[in-house]
């Protein structure tokens, strides 16, 4: 029995008269090449692909999302995301849709003193959205840094507690030529110290002293990142969340700043 002889339940009429904002698939992993700064980055994306479904339609065409992912290699860039999302919506015979791709983005970084190179990974989500025919590109970055507590430094005879922190930035992209690598570098500079994959002893001494000379509360970091992103070319509005995985507590310190886009 081929599919033409089978009942097409998804395409049947639905009498409840309730439109669905987003329906589709999530948590599907797929090999992907991400283009940024003129370079190809091999990675694996976790995808969430959805479309809007009109009130009178029973179901969407679920299999078509997967078919689209598998049509040739998945090669994406910030600039190419809108076209991919449009193609998805067309394929699903929908009017609106969203495509989320979450993946580790690897940057080759040289240690600050020894210069030894190693990969460092950042979690990135690219979000393509088409609504009322208009494309929008969203971005979510999770950037790990070191933070060192200014209070602890001030009150202690020696040392200061420090920890790994996550700076999460969500923003709308207004210029598809935006460089992800440069944006990550601009944000990570606002921690007490950036992270590297590989550090030899001279590097470890350097980063220990660098963080000690740049103590920051969670409030300092969220404000400094907001300052760095205010007027940053190629983005429109942002939300910044900073989480310090406190080494002196079994809980996190957390701060958020929202700046709506124009
Ligand atoms: N809409 C919908 N589909 C589901 C659901 N659960 C499973 N399916 C999918 O139903 C799919 C088959 O339906 P379609 O994608 O419409 O397949 P088809 O009708 O053969 O293909 P088209 O003619 O392209 O629509 C399978 O890929 C399943 O993943 C669900 O809750 N809703």
Explain the overall architecture.
- The protein has 262 residues and is an alpha+beta fold.
- The chain has a single domain (16-259), classed as Urate Oxidase (Roll).
- Helix content is 23%, strand content 41%.
- The protein has 6 helices and 9 strands, in the order E-E-H-E-H-E-E-E-H-E-H-H-H-E-E.
- The chain has helices at residues 62-69, 81-91, 150-155, 180-188, 201-213, 218-229; strands spanning 20-36, 39-53, 75-77, 97-110, 117-131, 134-148, 162-173, 235-244, 253-259.
- Strands 3-1-2-4-5-6-7-8-9 form a 9-stranded mixed beta sheet.
- A hairpin with an 8-residue loop joins strand 8 and strand 9.
- The longest helix has 13 residues, at 201-213.
- The radius of gyration is 22 Å and the shape is elongated.
- The structure holds guanosine-5'-triphosphate.
- Guanosine-5'-triphosphate binds next to helix 1.
Topology:
Layout: E1 20-36, E2 39-53, H1 62-69, E3 75-77, H2 81-91, E4 97-110, E5 117-131, E6 134-148, H3 150-155, E7 162-173, H4 180-188, H5 201-213, H6 218-229, E8 235-244, E9 253-259
Parallel strand pairs: 1-3
Antiparallel strand pairs: 1-2, 2-4, 4-5, 5-6, 6-7, 7-8, 8-9
Bound molecules: guanosine-5'-triphosphate.
Residues 3, 8, 10, 59-64 line the site of guanosine-5'-triphosphate.
According to CATH, the homologous superfamily is Urate Oxidase
What gap, in angstroms, lies between the N and C termini?
Answer: 55 Å
CATH class: Alpha Beta
Shape, please? elongated
Query: Helical percent range?
Result: 10-25%
Largest sheet: spatial strand order: 3-1-2-4-5-6-7-8-9
Number of structurally distinct domains: 1
Binned strand content: 35-45%
Low-confidence regions: none
Function: Converts GTP to 7,8-dihydroneopterin triphosphate.
Family: Belongs to the GTP cyclohydrolase IV family.
GO molecular function: GTP cyclohydrolase I activity
Site (May be catalytically important): 149
């Amino acid at each position: 029995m081929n599919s033409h002889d089978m009942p097409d339940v998804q395409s049947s009429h639905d009498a409840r008269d309730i439109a669905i904002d987003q329906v589709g698939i999530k948590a599907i992993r797929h090999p992907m090449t991400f283009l940024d700064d003129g370079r190809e980055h091999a990675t694996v994306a976790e995808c969430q692909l959805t479309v809007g479904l009109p009130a009178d339609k029973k179901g969407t065409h679920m299999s078509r999302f997967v078919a689209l992912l598998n049509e040739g290699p998945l090669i994406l860039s910030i600039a190419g995301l809108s076209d991919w999302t449009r193609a998805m919506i067309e394929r699903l015979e929908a009017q609106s849709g969203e495509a989320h791709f979450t993946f580790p983005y690897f940057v080759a970084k040289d240690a600050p003193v020894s210069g030894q190179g190693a990969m460092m990974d950042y979690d990135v989500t690219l979000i393509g959205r088409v609504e009322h025919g208009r494309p929008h590109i969203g971005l979510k970055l999770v950037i790990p840094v070191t933070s060192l507590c200014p209070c602890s430094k001030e009150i202690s005879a020696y040392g200061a507690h420090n920890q790994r922190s996550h700076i999460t930035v969500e923003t709308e992209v207004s210029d598809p030529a935006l460089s992800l690598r440069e944006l990550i570098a601009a944000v990570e500079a606002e921690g007490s110290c950036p992270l590297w994959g590989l550090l030899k002893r001279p590097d470890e001494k350097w980063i220990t002293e660098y963080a000690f000379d740049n103590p920051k509360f969670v409030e300092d970091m969220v404000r400094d990142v907001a300052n760095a992103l205010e007027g940053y070319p190629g983005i429109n509005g942002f939300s910044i969340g900073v989480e310090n995985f406190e080494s002196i507590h079994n809980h996190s310190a957390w701060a958020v700043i929202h700046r709506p886009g124009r």
